Amino acid sequence: MANQPMLKFVKVMRDMPEKRDANVRAKDFQEIYAEYADAKAKEQSSRCSQCGVPYCQSHCPLHNNIPDWLRLTAEGRLQEAYEVSQATNTFPEICGRICPQDRLCEGNCVIEQSGHGTVTIGAVEKYITDTAWDEGWVQPIKPHAERTESVGIIGAGPGGLAAADVLRRQGIQVTIYDRYDRAGGLLTYGIPGFKLEKPVVMRRNDQLEAGGVRFKLNCDVGGDMSFQEIRDQHDAVIIATGVYKTRDLQGPGSGAEGIVRAIDYLTASNRKSFGDAVPEFESGALNAEGKKVVVIGGGDTAMDCVRTAIRQGATSVKCLYRRDRANMPGSQREVQNAEEEGVKFEWLTAPKGFKGDPVTGVIVEKMRLGLPDATGRQSPEVIEGSDYVEDADIVIKALGFEPEDLPTLWGQPELPVTRWGTVKAEFTTGATDLDGVYAVGDIVRGASLVVWAIRDGRDCAEAILDRFNGAKSVAAE
Hints:
The chain is of the alpha/beta class. 36% of the residues lie in helices and 16% in strands. It is built from 19 helices and 16 strands. The strands form four sheets. It has a five-stranded parallel sheet with strand order 3-2-1-4-16, with helices on both faces. Helix 4 (66-74) runs antiparallel to helix 5 (78-88) and helix 13 (262-274) crosses helix 15.
C-alpha cells in the first residue's frame, strides 16, 4: 500500500486553485482562477476514492471516465489522462471552466457525501487539457481516409462543433454555417472572458479548420442562403442554432430606452474584448460605465451580466430575482463570486413596471414563496402594497431564452416543432421527421448547459455515421 497513489481524501483536504482577489479581478476580464501547479493537480487527483460505482461519471452528461483520468493525473501520466478525457469530451478545457460541477460531477462525488469535500474534478479537467495544448499533444484531426458523404451543420456553437469533430475524424466532409463572424456561438459571444477566455475557444475553432472542417461565417440561413439550398448540397443536415430569442418583460414602460437584452449586452462586451468596433458600446447604450445597473433574472446569464457590469465600472449593480437564494437556478458558486465583486442581490423581488424614457428606475414589488407549482418549486406571490422604486440607468433583461420561429424564418413549414417552438427530434439521435435532417442542443432541449449540447452533437454524429455506414453496406450487397 506504500505506493498507493489514490484514496488520500482522509489526509488531504480539498483545495481549489487560488482565486484572484475580488478587488483585482473585478477590474479585468481575465479568468478568476489560477492554474494548478503539477504537484497540486496530482495531490488533488489523489483524493479520488476510485469507487466501484462512480456517481461523478453517471451524473456527467458525457459520462466522462473521471476516475480513470484522475488516477492517471495522480500518477503523473498526463498525456494518457488527456487521451482518456478527450475520448468522451470534445472540449474538456471548456467544460472544466464553465460546467456547473457543483450540480453535476462534483455534487455527486462519493467523498462529498461522506463529508470530506468533493474532488476538484473541474479544475483538474481544465489543467489536463491546458497542459495538453501547452505540450503540443492536441493535434489537428487527421482522418485515416476521406469519405464522399457530406454533412452541413447550421450553427457553430458547442453542439455543432462537437458533431463536426466526431464526423470529421471519420473522414466525413463537414461544412458549418453560422450567422456570426466568428465560430463558437455562446462560447464566443455569450460567455464573458472571466469565465472563459476567448483564445481557449478560438484555438479549438482553428484546430477544427486545420482538420478540414469548412466554415461559412456571416451566413444568415433564410436570408443569405436558404435551408433548402443547404439540404440540396449535403447528405445530412444538423440544426444546431441554439436559442437566442429573449423572454420579454411586461408592465408599464417596458419598451423604454435603456432596457436591453442580456445577449446584446454580453455580445457587445465580448466584441469589445476582441478589439472590434462596437458603436452601441461606444455610445453607452450597451456599456455600464458610470451607471446604476439593474439586472432582472436569476440564472447564469444574469450572473454573467452583473459581473460584466462591475468590470465595466458601474456605480452600482443590483440583481432582482423573484425567488430566494436557495431556489435560484444559477450556480451558487457564481452568486458567491458576484457578491465578492460587489453585486447586491435583491431576493424575492420582481419588476412591476418602469419609470422614465430613457429608463430612470424599476418599479419593484416584493414577493413571498407560496405553494409549490407543477415542478415542485414554491411559486412566488406578490405582497400587496410592497412596491418601491429601484433607481436604474440601464436595465438588463436576463429572463432566459426561447427558440426563434425556424419554420417561418426558413420558409420550412414542414419542419416539426413542439408547442414550445423547439425542433421536434429524437433525444438519442437528433433525427427529425424530415429525411436526413437532425437537430441538437438548445434548439431541441430549450436553454440548457453547454455540456448537454456537446453530448447531443456527439450522439447525433454517431447516428449519422451509422446511417452512412448502413447505406454503404446495403450498396455493397
